[in-house]
Amino acid sequence: MAQGHKLTAKQWISRASFCFGNVGHSAFYGVMSTYFIIFVTGGMFNGLEKSVADKLIGLITGLIVAVRILELVIDPLLGNIVDNTKTRWGKFKPWIMIGNIVSVVLLLILFTGIFGLAKVNWVLFAILFVIIFIGFDVFYSFSDVSYWGMVPALSEDSAERGVYTSLGAFAGTIGWNGLTIIVVPVVTFFTYLATGQHKEGPAGWFAFAAIVSIVALLSALAVCLGTKEKHNIIRNSAQDKTTIREVFSAIFHNDQILWPSLAYLLYSCAYVITNGVLFYLYKFVIGKPGEFWIVGVIATIIGFCTSPLFPVLNKFIPRKWLFTAGQVSMSLAYVIFIFFRSNVFMMDLGLVLFNINFAQLVTVLTLTDAIEYGQLKNGQRNEAVVLAVRPMIDKLTGAISNGLVGYIAIAAGMTGTATAADMTAHDIRTFDSMAFYIPLVFALLAIVVFLTKVTLSEKKHAEVVEELKDKLATGDDGAATGEAAATKAAEVKEVTVCAPVDGKLVPMKEVVDQDGKPFPGKGFAIQPTNNHIYAPFDGKIRFTFGTRHAFGIVSDDGLELLVHVGVGTVNMRGEGFVSHYADGQAVKKGDLLLDFDRQLIQNTGYQDTVVSFFTQPHRIEDVTPINYGSGVKHGDQVTTVKFK
C-alpha cells in the first residue's frame, strides 16, 4: 500500500527542510508575540518619564491587540494574493522569502526602539511604530499563510500531507519552547558584553532578536531550496476560499462547531495568558529570572510526549475525557503556581501539569466530525471552516494575551528597571488575579462547556455518518449535495459507470450491516480482491467524509455517486485509508483515488465490501442490467445510467 513504500532521498530532504522551516518560523513569531512585549515593558523606554513610558506601553499593547484582531480579516485576503501568484518558483516560495526578509528587517528596527526615537520625539515614534508594526505583521502573515498553504502542493497523498503537518507542528514546539530556554542567558550575556551589567537590557534584547531572525531566514531558505511544489494537482485552498463572514455563519449554524470552539477559546485564553506572564513570575515574583529556562525545557519534553500519546490513549479513552483531564491538570498547575511557588520541586511539577493537555487535538478532531454533523443537520458541508476556526481562535487569544500581558506589567509595577525587591503585596495580588485566578476560571469553564454542550462524541459521529449515508442513498438528504442539484436539467443524459475496484459484483441488497439492515438506495456493490479504489468516470471529487471511508464524486455531466468502502468502517475513524486527491480535484476515469487496508478492516471485524450508490436517485431514469456474480477489473463497464 501507499504508506509502505520506501522514501527517496528527495522525499527525506523535503520532509527535513519543511520541518526545519517551522523551527525558525515559530521562534520568530514567539519573539514578536511574547518577548517583544517583555522588551517593551522592561527596556525599550528606559530613561523616559514613567508616565510617558506607561502611555507608550499602553499604546503599543493596544495596537498589537488591534492588529491581531485585524488579522482575522487580513489573512484570507493575503491567502487570495498568494493563490493568484504565478512565478517560476511557484506561488508559495517567493512569499516565504519576501515575507521573512521584510519582517526580519522591520522586527530588528522595532527592537532598536526605532533607533531610540521615543527619547527624542515620542509622538513621531508612535506614528512610525504603527506603520512599521502593521508592515511587519502583513509580511509575516504572507510568510505564515504560504508556509502552511504549501502542504497540499508537496504531496498528493493525504497521509504524506499529514506527515508534513505533524513535522511542522513538532518543529514549531522546538522553535517556540526553545526561546524560553535561551532567552534569559542570551539577553543577559549580550547585555553584559555591551554594558558590563548582568541583567536584561536593550542591547541584549536586540541581540536575541537578531539571532532568532538569522535562524528564521535560514529556515525559510531551507524550505525554498529543499522542497518542490507539485503542479499536477488542484490545491484545495485555491478552490474554496472562505471569508470571515462565511466562517462565522457556519459556526453559528452548527452548534457542534460553536461549542467546541468556545471550549477551546476558554482553554487557549488560559494557556496563552499564563504562558505570556511566566517570565514575569520568575523575574518579579520568584526573583529568579535565571531559572526561567526550565519552563521551556519542561514544555518541550511534555510536548514531545503528548502528541504521539494522544492516538494511543484515544483508542481507550473518549475525547471528552481526554479534554477534561487536560483542563483538570492545568487547574492543578494553577493551584501550585499560586500556593507553592517557593518550592522548586512543586514549581517543576506545576509546569509539567500545565503542559499536559490534549485540547488542541481534541478540538481539531471534533470540528472535523462536525462537518458531517452540519451536513446532516442543515445540508451544508464546511470543510474550510475546520481549517479556519482553530487558527482564528489562536490569533484571537494571542491578541487577548498581548493586551493582558502589557496591562498586567503596568498594573503590577513590573516595568522599566523594577526588580523583585520592588514588588509589594498588592502588586503580587494584582499579578496573581490576572495571571492565574482568571485563567483558572477559564479552564474550569472549558470543562463545563465541553461536558455539557459538546455532544458529538466518536460514537455519535459514527451514528451521524450512517444516518447521512442512508439519507444520501435514498435522496432524502434535505439539501443539494452538488452543483448538479442546483439546476434541473431538461434533457436526459447518459453516463457509463465503471468498476472502481477489482472484485466480484454483488447486489446492494445483499450487503447488510451488523443489525441485518440492507444497504439502502440505487447502485451496486463489489466484493474486492485488492486494496485500491479508482475513479469510475471522468469528474470531480465533491467531498470526503472525515473518516475517509467514503467520498462523493460527480461526473462531468452531473451524475453523483458515493463510493463507500466497507460496512461498519466508519468506526475505524480513518485508520487504514489513504486518499490520493484533494476535495474539488478533477479526475479522469481510472485515476487512483484511495488505498484501503482490507486485512485491517477484516481483522477489526468489519466487512470490506465496496458499495457505489447514486446520491440523487430521484434523477435516475434508467440503469442498464448489471451482471451480478461476475468478476470485474477496475475500469470495466458496470452499467450505463440515464438521468435528468
User: What is the rounded distance between the termini?
Assistant: 38 Å
**Count of helical segments?**
19
Q: What structural class do you assign from the helix and strand content?
A: alpha+beta
Low-confidence stretches: 232-240, 479-489
Task: Walk across the major sheet and give the strand order.
Answer: 9-5-6-7-11-3-2-13
Count the E strands.
14
Task: State the major sheet.
Answer: 8 strands, antiparallel
Round the Cα radius of gyration to an integer and report it: 28 Å
Rough outline: elongated
Give a nutshell description of this structure:
This protein is an alpha+beta fold and 644 residues long. 60% of the residues lie in helices and 11% in strands.
